[in-house]
Amino acid sequence: MIKSLCALARKPGTTRGQFQSYYEEKHAPLAAGLFPFSGYVRNHLIDAPDFGWDTISEFWNDDMAGTAALLAGTVGETMRADEEQFMDRTKVVPARVEEIVLSPGARADALGLRSALLVTGTRASADIHAQVIEQVRELAEHSEGVSVDLVDTGTQFPASAVIWLPGEPSALPDLSGLAVTALLVRRCGTAVTELLGTRRS
Fold first, then answer.
1. Largest CA distance in the chain
2. Are 51 and 197 contacting, i.e. CB atoms less than 8 angstroms apart?
3. Contact 114, 108 (CB under 8 A)
4. What is the CATH number for 86?
5. What is the DSSP string of 11-57?
6. Under DSSP, is residue 182 helix (H, G, I), strand (E, B) or coil?
7. Do 133 and 111 belong together in one domain?
8. How would you write 46-112 as a 3-class SS string?
9. 45: nearest Cα among 181, 143, 151
10. I need a labelling partner for 122 at 20 to 30 A (CA). Which of 33, 36, 112, 137 fits?
11. Which domain holds residue 21?
12. How does pLDDT run across 82-131, given as a tens digit for each residue?
């Protein structure tokens, strides 16, 4: 299973609310029916107005070659045309990640809220990843639904790692020496039965 993230921003002249509504009502159903995703989640920011992006999407895929072929054909043309309706395509930032689930449980609270902790630093990515895993593993011993995405190097994604926690946690991992941007997001996931990838399997 391959996982990727993508940071997305609204089209100039529109609001965050307009962007997120169009994404959920129009774009996400379109994508779910055209690409072989095994999982598809949109994390819509509800704070941090100056962050620079409005949504961080998660994609799980068993067929990257098939997805690339679709993007190069008419399906890609359809998606890009729809993106032009609501998205600033110059700010699309994808990244392949290694997902590490550290504790089972719901990925969001009862209201659908979760926290994304974006970790950056000046050290090598491998060192950052090792520190994040060590510290977050301790937090996961006492918390449910904790996971970490380790971002591949060589991308423009705004983090070296992303820590996902349900709701607004009272305690955060000790990541001294690293910069952490905490974002509160609303998690919206496409039902498994609506994903093309699961219907094909």
1. 48
2. no
3. yes
4. 3.30.70.100
5. PTTS-HHHHHHHIIIIIHHHHHHHS-EEEEEEEEESS-TTSS-SEEE
6. strand
7. yes
8. CCCCCCCCCEEEEEEECCHHHHHHHHCCHHHHHHHHHHCCCECHHHCEEEEEEEEECCCCCCCCCCC
9. 181
10. 137
11. 2-95+192-200
12. 999 999 999 999 999 999 999 999 999 999 999 999 999 999 999 999 99
Backbone angles phi, psi at 117, to 5 degrees: -100, 110
CA 169, distance to chain mean position in Å, is 19
Query: Which helix (H) or strand (E) element contains residue 199?
Result: helix 196-200
In this predicted model, what pLDDT tens digit does every residue of 15-50 receive, in sequence order? 999 999 999 999 999 999 999 999 999 999 999 889
Whether 106 and 154 share a structural domain: yes
Number of domains observed in the structure of the chain = 2
Shared domain for 79 and 9, answered yes or no, is yes
The DSSP code sequence of 112-180 is: SEEEEEEEE-SS-HHHHHHHHHHHHHHHHTS-SS-EEEEEPSS---S-SEEEEEES--S-----TTSEE
For residue 103, which phi and psi values (nearest 5 degrees)?
A: -155, 140
Q: Are residues 91 and 101 in the same domain?
A: no
> For residue 91, what are its two tokens?
């700010």
Residues 107 and 172 in one domain: yes
User: 152 and 78: one domain?
Assistant: no
Q: Are residues 72 and 108 in the same domain?
A: no
- Asked whether the whole model's pTM tops 0.70, one would answer yes
Residues 153 and 179 in one domain: yes
Tokens of 94: 């994808």
